[in-house]
Design brief:
single chain; 364 residues; alpha/beta; UDP-N-acetylmuramoyl-L-alanine:D-glutamate ligase; Protein-Tyrosine Phosphatase, Chain A; 2 domains; nine-stranded mixed beta sheet; six-stranded mixed beta sheet; 15 strands; 22% strand; globular
Length: 364
């Protein structure tokens, strides 16, 4: 990323970071801008190397970058921040890499730390961390997005409509019933996207059309198929307990959950409570320290041990365990809430293995 930013001829950069929602938000921003101009690229932590698209970029290209905390750490010495910066949210994550949560939060601040006057920072008003005064000390103009509050500058929901407000003017973009992407977390991503795309200069009709047609991206609560009356969802990029909680709260009906793995020094109490509250039909855990934490929390709240299959070391074994229990109307959900280290190459390999097994099933 550092090499790319030094070589990139364009200054029309839109950067997206956050604990959750980076890829979805960056992808939707890209889809909206693509309706206005062909000269736009997307790259970064979204599995597209920025160096691979460098030869497609000229002075007039709009560049959408998904930036992880690691990316931001690596480019801080360059003192470069994107013209439009989005932080979707911040929750505890990567505490196996950062000594404290404050260090992780400081890493995220790199996306706007070097913005100049006339640049824009878009923040989640519903996220306590992002309302901290330490996020409002730069030279950039701050815009917000919120599901709960009406805002003077930014995007919010009123009477079921998504509203973009700037300089006292309310612009209705679309009704939330027109949104194809499901889940409250994705509604936040859409609000963030609309703020960014509006500031960039996209027309309201283009934004609405792109949002209506956007059904999500691979590996993020991705519906794969229904086979034998059982639904299959791949949410392998849920590498934090909060992300797995979101998946459990979004889906309906009986759930068989494939979860666990390597720990990032995170707290699993809320995930355990959600597993019990959602009455997860069967919990299948990969071997790892995160799984041990989940089991410890479940024991504290008397979740039946007979519903847990633990210490599995392959996706094949986990998938077979899920199939042994699954009945019509069940959902088999891969949403680990943990890192993939030790068993898989990365979270995408974990998801690819799951998808390969699902693809062998005959659709209903």
């Amino acid at each position: 990323m550092g090499v790319f930013l030094q070589l990139c001829p364009s200054h029309d950069l839109i950067g997206v970071t956050g604990t959750k929602g980076k890829s979805t938000t960056a992808s939707l921003i890209y889809e909206i801008i693509k309706k206005t101009r062909q000269n736009v690229v997307i790259a970064g932590n979204i599995r597209i190397s920025p160096l691979a698209v460098l030869d497609k970029i000229d002075n007039d290209t709009t560049v959408v970058l998904e930036l992880s905390s690691w990316n931001l750490d690596d480019i801080r010495h360059l003192k470069i921040s994107p013209r439009i910066a989005v932080i979707t949210n911040i929750y505890p994550d990567h505490l196996n890499r950062y000594l404290t949560l404050a260090d992780y939060v400081d890493s995220k601040k790199g996306i706007f730390k070097f913005q100049t006057k006339g640049n824009f920072l878009i923040l989640n008003y519903d996220n306590d961390t992002l309302r901290s005064p330490s996020f409002h000390l730069g030279l950039s103009h701050i815009y917000w997005f919120s599901k709960k509050n009406q805002l003077a500058h930014g995007t919010f929901i009123k009477d079921g409509n998504i509203i973009y407000n700037t300089n006292g003017f309310h612009h209705t973009i679309l009704n939330i019933n027109e949104v194809k992407l499901k889940g409250n977390h994705n509604l936040e991503n859409i609000l963030a996207t609309i703020s960014a795309a509006s500031i960039w200069g996209a027309k309201r009709t283009q934004i609405a059309e792109a949002v209506k047609n956007f059904s999500g991206i691979a590996d993020r609560l991705e519906f794969l198929k229904e086979a034998g009356g059982v639904r299959y969802f791949n949410d392998t990029t849920a590498t934090t307990p909060e992300a797995a909680v979101t998946a459990l709260e979004t889906l309906t009906g009986p759930i068989i959950l494939i979860a666990g793995g390597a720990d990032k020094n995170l707290n699993y109490k809320n995930l355990a409570e959600t597993i019990k509250k959602r009455k997860v039909k069967k919990l299948i855990l990969f071997k790892g320290k995160a799984s041990s934490k989940i089991l410890k929390e479940l024991k504290q709240i008397n979740f039946p041990s007979r519903l847990v299959d633990k210490n599995l070391t392959t996706m094949t074994a986990a998938f077979s365990s899920a199939l042994d229990t699954a009945q019509i109307s069940d959902t088999i959900l891969l949403s680990p809430g943990a890192a993939s280290f030790g068993i898989f190459k990365n979270e995408f390999d974990r998801g690819d293995q799951f998808k390969k097994l699902v693809s062998k099933l005959k659709s209903s």
